[in-house]
Amino acid sequence: MLHSTMGRFRLLLWLQGLSYLLLLFVAFPLKNAGIMPQAVTWFGNLYGFLFLMYLLIVVSMHTSQKWRIRRSLALFFISFVPFGNFVYDFVVFRKMVR
Question: pLDDT band at residue 92, thresholds of 50, 70 and 90?
Answer without folding.
Answer: confident
